[in-house]
Design goal:
3 copies of one chain form a homotrimer. The first copy, chain A, is α/β, with parallel strands linked by helices. In chain A, 49% of the residues lie in helices and 18% in strands. Chain A contains 11 helices and 11 strands. In chain A, strand 6 and strand 7 form a beta hairpin. The longest helix of chain A has 20 residues. Chain A is globular. Chain A starts with a helix and ends with a strand. The interface between A and B is medium-sized, with 33 and 32 residues.
């Protein structure tokens, strides 16, 4: 496993992979714009009539349960199975798992039915899904009864995924190695959907580096964190930070990116 | 009743209440970001399977009929009843009541079935719901055949709510007192969803001051108006004003806020 | 036919026409804000219970299939027929036609059932609908086997519409005349929903100049392109460009607009 964030980003911008996203109403515009700014092509499609066809055209699929209803879960299951049948990587963002039984169950149904490649969530959400103690208030993780590095490793093992647990420091694990990513800025927590954006960008990096999901997941968070650092410099608050975040994603320079990435084994 | 906008804001930022919002597709991102920027935690959830549980976890519930359909009305009724059964305040934003019969009826169904705490709308929408003459074009209030102070008082009495009627000057009433709030900026009318944001922020202030809904509703509009004044200073138009509005909400200073608030009895 | 972009814009701002939009979840906020910034009034409504009434109140209807499902197609058919029965112009944006069979069929169903005034799409989408070879990846046009000027003319003739094909240079045709519009900026392709915005603005211009759909469609693209040029000057990337785009739409000056418009017969 090699962390080469700049190299993966260069590859992604050359190939412009299509990333199919079935996500929540709150952040659709934001994750599409983050995907475009990074250099990939987003497509949003949720109708049962077309999700299998669309997933089959894509280089990665991102499932996000942030504003669920029954039809959407069914579409996610259809798309997820279609993607995996063709070897396309799948990211699951279990938004709000632990907050309501419906969300926890929906996340479990998807994990059971779809061979998820990367599970990207906050500590409370991921802890809920591995059966550890957690407190989730709405879509915010308040507390988890387990250290994040250990949580990432445990989730990877028990759920058979690469687990990507974001927080002040992010932790990504395949069940053996745990990588800690220390990029980012506190303003990320002041804008809704930045967690969802990190899942979308995880899909983009997986599309460019499907054979190494652990590295791709870590690189996605590192790149997003560096962009957040750039966006925060000069931002007057969460609104201008948010606009500048897309500028910063578009301006990420593959040549210098790895000099700024702070990834290490945890 | 005491207007203490800074004190309520300080309380809100310490407690970070969860504000459950069942709102329209157009503004979900915007009301979530306004809620976060102010200092509370938003959660969007509309599935019938989870709205009662989510509303029960929240400190306030905001219902907004801006992009209606039948499933969403049912979810609003379920969530609204669950919230009131637990004493959680409910804000209703009757977007477009008066424009189509479906919207007028939906707003009436919610007012009949849910003990709404604060009804926050424009003059045309509120006038429609009290049976006064009104002209609503789409979601814009064009004319109302009644003075806004009197309209707020009449709506409060007839509908058994705190009525919050926004416009160039806002008027809030519990049926006895009428408060006029003279903060704000004309650019608010150039950005979609600023009315919806004012409803979301009303929910936030109610969550921090549930025992005084009249004061909380007035404080919410005053705080939002002050933020709009700050955002407008230096904005080059509606787009940069919009980004700066979140900066300004986050930068509201509880120490100095009341010196800028223009609230008085009408 | 006279191109008088400034004159149509002045008319639009005086009348503030209501533009009913049944559009996709990704861009609803953006097309509403573009409509408001230009000077018209947007309304989003998709429930079968109200779309006919709302369309009947509007001066133009914009249908956009970007995030389809069956209920939404039905609503579009109902609204489209109601609009045309009252002589209200209808814009169709066939987002992603050619990417999946479901989207291609949905666009065809609407074209068959509704007398569409202007079809606004990218080259791949429009080529798909005239039966020409095309490559559409997600919602991006990759290639079309026909020159854009000829494509616009052929689409207008075969589909009985004014065809508005956007790209680096836009082409609009009524089947006889083909107009080329050379305004715009490359940053438009870095922000999601700018194609959808151009469809919404086409609806605004049609509302102001319904008797001349070819000229109105060209003027809408020219005005949007000029705004994009203004927004790009000084933007640091796609995020700040996006915020500045609304500023620029609001700042368009009817007095000087036509001196900047680059429209000519192709």
């Amino acid at each position: 496993m090699t962390i080469d964030t700049g190299g993966t980003l260069r590859e992604l911008r050359e190939r412009k992979p299509l990333v199919h996203q079935i996500t929540n109403y709150v952040v659709m515009n934001e994750t599409a714009n983050a995907t475009l700014a990074l250099g990939a092509l987003p497509v949003m499609a949720h109708a049962r009539e077309e999700v299998e066809e669309m997933a089959g055209l894509a280089s990665a699929l991102v499932l996000n349960i942030g504003t669920l209803s029954e039809h959407w879960i069914e579409a996610m299951l259809l798309a997820g199975r279609a993607a995996r049948a063709r070897g396309i990587p799948v990211v699951l963002d279990p938004v709000g798992a632990g907050a309501t039984a419906y969300r926890t169950e929906a996340a479990r149904r998807i994990l059971d039915a779809v061979e998820v490649t990367v599970l990207r969530g906050n500590a409370g959400e991921v802890a809920t899904l591995v059966g550890a103690e957690a407190e989730v208030r709405g879509v915010e993780s308040i507390a988890s009864g387990i250290e994040p590095a250990e949580l990432a490793r445990a989730a990877a093992r028990r759920l058979g995924v690469v687990a990507s647990v974001t927080g002040p420091v992010d932790h990504v694990s395949d069940g053996e190695t745990v990588l800690a990513i220390a990029n980012g800025d506190a303003l990320l927590a002041a804008v809704t959907g930045t967690g969802c954006m990190s899942s979308a960008l995880t899909g983009c990096f997986l599309a460019a580096k499907p054979q190494e999901p652990l590295a791709a997941a870590a690189e996605a968070l590192a790149a997003f964190g560096v962009a957040a650092e750039d966006a925060a410099a000069g931002a007057a608050g969460p609104g201008t930070f948010h606009a500048r975040l897309y500028d910063a994603l578009a301006a990420l320079d593959p040549e210098t990116l790895d000099s700024r990435v702070r990834v290490g084994e945890a």
